């Protein structure tokens, strides 16, 4: 059997998933240790029985719903590769809106202090640390298993100005005041059927669900942020497409100014920021 035949076998096994051809290509390139282009450059390359068995095992796991990123142990975010496992949320394309918005607000030079709360895989923190080499980025997470993944990504990308700390939201930050706080916290309603029925059931629930209205963690972060920000500092958060209004209200209740919501590539409200005002 050739690599191209194997992609076709996978396409058939994965026929119920939306990206069956792409998923199959990704799994073939993983088990054969080649890039996707090589499948088409050398389509007649033979697969070994061992590669075939490994592929069938992964394709069956994918057919049961396990995300490709977990099966490969890798995903891409902000054109960078990130190690992922079942202990972290898989970085999503919509979260790139949070990076874009942060980069509009954070000047390209200057020794700014940035915190990324609930960093998970560390994708946001690493992307910001690489884009703003003079800044110091502190990333926190309550899960030590998530921090292990973030540490691997920090090392791989040589993000030497990135520091990882264990703790609940701001708790790990001590008395340090920040210029920018960013976060993609859990924001899914805890009784949302997606948590049981869709592929996201393979991702850590504690990185996704946040109380009845999905806003428990956003409320905690927005409430605590003003004391942790320097005068004129900014808080930026990702949220659900239908939570923009509530999040803007929460920012306003805490006295933030310049409250603005940005839409993601799907034109959905996704990121809100505000500036702490100096009284
Ligand atoms: N955007 C993710 C989803 O709906 C949720 C991410 C999060 O809770 N931070 O799958």
Description of the structure:
The chain is α/β, with parallel strands linked by helices and 279 residues long. It has two domains: 3-64, Helicase, Ruva Protein, domain 3; 87-275, Rossmann fold, CATH 3.40.50. Helix content is 39%, strand content 19%. It has eleven helices and nine strands. The protein has helices at 3-13, 20-31, 36-41, 49-63, 68-72, 96-105, 123-131, 144-156, 194-197, 216-228, 244-253; strands at 74-77, 80-83, 113-117, 136-141, 162-166, 178-183, 229-238, 257-263, 269-275. The strands form two sheets. A seven-stranded mixed β-sheet has the order 5-4-3-6-7-9-8, with helices on both faces. A two-stranded antiparallel sheet has the order 1-2. Helix 6 runs parallel beside helix 7 (123-131). The radius of gyration is 20 Å and the shape is elongated. It starts with a helix and ends with a strand. 41% of the residues are buried. Glutamine (GLN) is lined by residues 92, 184, 186-188, 200, 208. Glutamine binds next to loops.
Distance from first to last alpha carbon: 71 Å
CATH architectural type of the largest domain? 3-Layer(aba) Sandwich
Main β-sheet: number of strands, strand sense, barrel status?
7 strands, mixed
Helix content: 25-40%
Task: List the total number of helices.
Answer: 11
């Amino acid at each position: 059997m050739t690599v191209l035949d194997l992609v076709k076998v996978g396409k058939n096994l994965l026929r119920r998933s939306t990206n069956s051809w792409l998923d199959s290509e990704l799994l073939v390139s993983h088990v054969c240790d080649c890039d996707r282009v090589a499948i088409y450059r050398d389509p007649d390359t033979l697969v070994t029985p061992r590669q075939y068995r490994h592929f069938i095992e992964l394709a069956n796991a994918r057919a049961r719903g396990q995300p490709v990123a977990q099966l490969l142990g890798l995903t891409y975010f902000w054109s960078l590769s990130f190690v992922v496992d079942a202990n972290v949320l898989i970085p999503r394309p919509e979260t790139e809106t949070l990076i874009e918005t942060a980069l509009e607000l954070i000047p390209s030079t200057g020794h700014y202090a940035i915190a990324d709360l609930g960093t998970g895989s560390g994708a946001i923190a690493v992307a910001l640390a690489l884009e703003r080499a003079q800044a110091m980025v502190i990333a926190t997470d309550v899960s030590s298993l998530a921090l292990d993944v973030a540490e691997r990504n920090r090392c791989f990308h040589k993000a030497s100005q990135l520091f990882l700390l264990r703790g609940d939201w701001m708790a790990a930050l001590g008395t340090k005041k920040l210029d920018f706080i960013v976060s993609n916290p859990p924001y899914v309603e805890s009784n949302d059927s997606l948590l049981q029925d869709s592929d996201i059931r393979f991702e850590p629930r504690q990185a996704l669900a946040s109380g009845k209205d999905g806003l428990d963690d956003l409320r905690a972060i927005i409430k605590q942020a003003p004391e942790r920000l320097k005068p004129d500092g900014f808080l930026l958060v990702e949220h659900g497409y239908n939570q923009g209004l509530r999040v803007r209200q929460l920012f306003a209740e805490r006295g933030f100014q310049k409250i603005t919501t940005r839409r993601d590539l799907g034109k959905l409200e996704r990121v809100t920021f505000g500036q702490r005002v100096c009284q």
